[in-house]
Amino acid sequence: MKKCQYCKIAVGGNLEKCPLCQSRLIGEGEAPYFPEHPALQFRSFLYKLQMFIAWAVIIASLGMDFLLGMKFPSFPDLHWSFIFTMWVVAVEFCIMKQFRPGTASARKLTVMVFIILVLLLVTSYCFDFLWLTKDWIIPIAIAATLVVNFVLTMLDKQGNAITYLLTELFFGLIPFVVMYTLKRDMPMTWGICLMVSIAVLAAAIIFRGRTIAREFQRRFHL
Ligand SMILES: [Zn+2]
After folding, report:
1. Which residues pair with 9 in a beta bridge?
2. pTM of the model
3. 32 CA distance to ligand 1 centroid (A)?
4. Are 149 and 110 in contact (CB under 8 A)?
5. What is the pLDDT of residue 165?
6. How close is the Cα of 37 to the center of ligand 1, in Å?
7. Where is mean pLDDT largest: 65-79, 93-107, 162-176?
8. Ligand 1 centre distance from Cα of residue 184 (Å)
9. How many domains is the chain partitioned into structurally?
10. Within a domain: residue 147?
11. Which residue range(s) make up the domain with 9?
12. What are the CA-CA distances from residue 24 to residues 2, 11, 12, 17, 119 (Å)?
């Protein structure tokens, strides 16, 4: 056990300096309390490496767009490097989220799908395929996320997934309400999304009714 001659305390582990006064400890050290973790160090190196590559490609794309004037032939006025940068930053954000342990999978999934769909909306608006995103990609993505989140809800014994499930159900219903109010024809895909939403909600109540009630009480302090 090491000792600090100023604070008169014994310090376990193999620390070099006193945690209280930062003076050099005296005496024999023990096995370290916090062991070295080579796998974590390697992960951290990979993380920095991919971050450096991300910055490099962002700078390269901005250079090609603004300095070299390289454009898409069909969209000569479009600064595509902004859209590209937006995507790379989003991917970096998602990777950062993945590297942070202890966040519920349902939350990660919901946040990631939401970010990707927003970026897709912007991109498809700029590149003129908004109809594809609006009528096909988004409803299918929401329906798929609902199903995956439902599975996560079934697996999560602590009941931390149901909130995200309900949030997505809400998002699945918005377009239906909007189109119903505007008396517009609803694309088939949104109809399917709505049906998936209702099926998932029913299943969640049937299989996890009690957990839902408990999680609500906990989150809203009822
Ligand atoms: Zn000390």
Report:
1. 4
2. 0.69
3. 19
4. yes
5. 72
6. 28
7. 65-79
8. 74
9. 2
10. yes
11. 1-35
12. 10, 11, 14, 5, 53
